[in-house]
Amino acid sequence: MKHHKRRSLSVRVDAAAMTDWQSLHRVFATAFGYPQSYAATKEAWVECMTHLDDPQAQTTAVHCEPGQVIVLVVENGRELRTRHSELAAGIVALVGEVNERRVQEGKLPVLVLAFE
Length: 116
Fold this sequence. Notes:
Elements: E1 8-14, H1 21-32, H2 42-50, E2 69-75, H3 77-83, H4 85-104, E3 111-115
Parallel strand pairs: 1-2, 2-3
């Protein structure tokens, strides 16, 4: 099996600013540059993040090249797990949904998650 090295870039979000789902959506909308029409729902989050390697989709201002991954670094993520475990689990589930959707579409996963 031949392995290809996939390049990555990192985007950092601060979990200290996340106290509920609404604030989580604000943090991600700011970090990734979601469009003004962003609905601040889990479904809208997945839709925006699914197209990180497709600038023409206009769902984010942050993009990677096809075949690259974005490492989503959640600063204060360990503390978020204690303070708001449902938000931490929600981020994990949303990242999983994005990558699962992409795989179902015949694409490579685009997000890697790191809590620090």
